[in-house]
Every structure is written in C-alpha cells, then in structure tokens.
Predict the structure.
Amino acid sequence: MWSGIYKRWNPIPSLEGERLYLEAVHDDWEGIRVWLRPEDRTKPMAIFKFKTVEAYYASNESNRICQISPKQTLDFPHAFWLVDNSEFLAIVSKQSCGTMREGLSHFSFLSCEDCIDVLAWEPEVVFET
C-alpha cells in the first residue's frame, strides 16, 4: 500500500460496503484487467479494464504496513479508492524522467486479501455474472 491521500471512489454503487475478493489480474495484449468478486456470490463480479497502463503493483493485504497519510483511516469494507499525492505515482514519474503523459491517476483496489494499485487513465467497468 502506497502513501498518499485516499479518496473514496464509488464506480459501482451496488457494491458499496460489500466485502470483495480479488479473483484475477490479467496483464496481456488487451491491457490490464482487475477482476473482483463479492463475498455474496449471487452478486455480479466487477471487471475493471485499463487499456493503457503506466504501472501496476499487486501485494498481499498482510503487507499493507505503511502509513497512508497523517491522521487518515480507511473505512472497510470499501474496495475502490483514488489516491492523491501518491507516492507510487511520484516514484514512477521520477523513474520516467518526465516522459509520462498528463492526466494519469492512481487507482487502488483494496480487497479483503489483496491490494492492487494501477497508474492509468479512466478504466472501463464491466459486470459479469
């Protein structure tokens, strides 16, 4: 988990407050896809598709040990976050020597067991059953 200011993002209102689990992360010629499954398997799975990605990072939830920002706590279960003042974005930007395109965002998916952080532009959201 990267330090920064985590802001609630609610792309799927029907999944607000649901416990979500990472089903898969696919990285191939179609881009990056993050698959999240609700604990209640009668609800549809959410798939976030990113066609162009600068970087992504996946970690086990047990490795979330850094302080995200002073005096901030995150409400769980909530899986979808946008990160301002992102340490991850700053590091990747520095490593790119200024070649990254403008408008890049840090999307963070905090499931019950895994953290997926994606530096990309707006994702497409798809529901599966």
About this structure: Residues 25 and 34 are 5 Å apart (CA to CA). The two ends are 29 Å apart (CA to CA).
